[in-house]
Amino acid sequence: MKIAHIDLGPRPVMLAPMEDVTDRSFRLICKEQGASMVYTEFVSADALIRDIPATVRKLSIDPGERPTAIQIYGREVEPMVEAAKIVEQAGPDLIDINFGCPVKKVAGKGAGAGMLRDIPKMLSITRAVVDAVKLPVTVKTRLGWDHNSKIIVELAEQLQDCGISALTVHGRTRSQMYTGSADWEMIARVKENPRLHIPLIGNGDITTPDAAREAFDRYGVDGVMVGRASIGAPWIFHDIRAAIDDNSTEPLSVAQRFDLIRRQIRESIDRIDEYRGILHIRRHLAASPLFKGISHFRDTRIRMLRASTFDELMEILAQVEQLISEQSL
Fold first, then answer.
1. Is residue 30 annotated as part of the catalytic site, yes or no?
2. CB 37 within 8 Å of CB 67
3. What's residue 268's pLDDT?
4. How far, in Å, CA of 74 to CA of 169, rounded?
5. CB 3.0–4.6 Å: which of 105, 126, 165, 316 could bond 136 by disulfide?
6. Extended beta strands in 233-315, E state
7. Rounded CA gap, 329 and 325, in Å?
8. What gap in Å lies between CA 243 and CA 251, rounded to an integer?
9. Cα–Cα distance measured from residue 19 to residue 276, given in angstroms and rounded to the nearest whole number
10. What are the Cα distances from residue 161, in Å, to 119, 127, 150, 165, 197?
11. Is the pTM of this model over 0.90?
12. Residue 329: band (very low, low, confident or very high) from pLDDT cuts 50, 70, 90
């Protein structure tokens, strides 16, 4: 699959943009584990124009993580164009426009999935950004605002006409947020449209290698995007890649998975500081499937998520790893 000149190979698997998750360290680890392309945390156009330091830091890209997309969001044409030009100078491989974020602080203000209630403005922003930069521009959006307005088949064509190079569709409406199941039949309808010529990336409920393989085999998408299932489990890209390539690569061992978690902790602390770095990584620890199914784990889990120093957290992880080893004997 190609996005403009960017060759992602057959059946690419992407890391979705996620706020407070897809920092540079996590993106690099996911790339090493087999992600075909990674996306930054989404960047507010208004904050970028105001030169807010925390927003500007999101533009930093490690050479090892490429190809990388920087995703921007906003609700007005001029700030989005200005932000896109700033992003272009940061040197990503492409710029992605977020028309899919459902959270109230974004969609409620008319940005992200909020644009699904103002299609003319969505198209104006898309067309203006495409015209303003030389990089490929892509869009990520949802099926529609709610159950009664699943407009994605027609919208995909309209976005294509604006000049985008690829489209990612999350198989839920904004009203669904992250509840219920993603509607992959609807994503397939987008792909089956003979007038759609750009690559289509499917997103939603890709939580296992089998789900990724079904997205390609049954629903015919050109690529898949993994979001929440990667939190605390960057090795999911290794597992998916092995499944869709039908190779005999062994899954990572428990020790290797713990090593990746430890690396995330160290790099999170190095990037920020000890206290805030550990706060940042708690979301990964809380979500990680590495700790599921461990007998009598509740008290240890509480200690792990309350640990406030690197040494304390390393000691707890060592104990947990030993516990898993003993239980597997």
1. no
2. yes
3. 94
4. 18
5. 165
6. none
7. 7
8. 10
9. 15
10. 13, 9, 19, 10, 10
11. yes
12. low
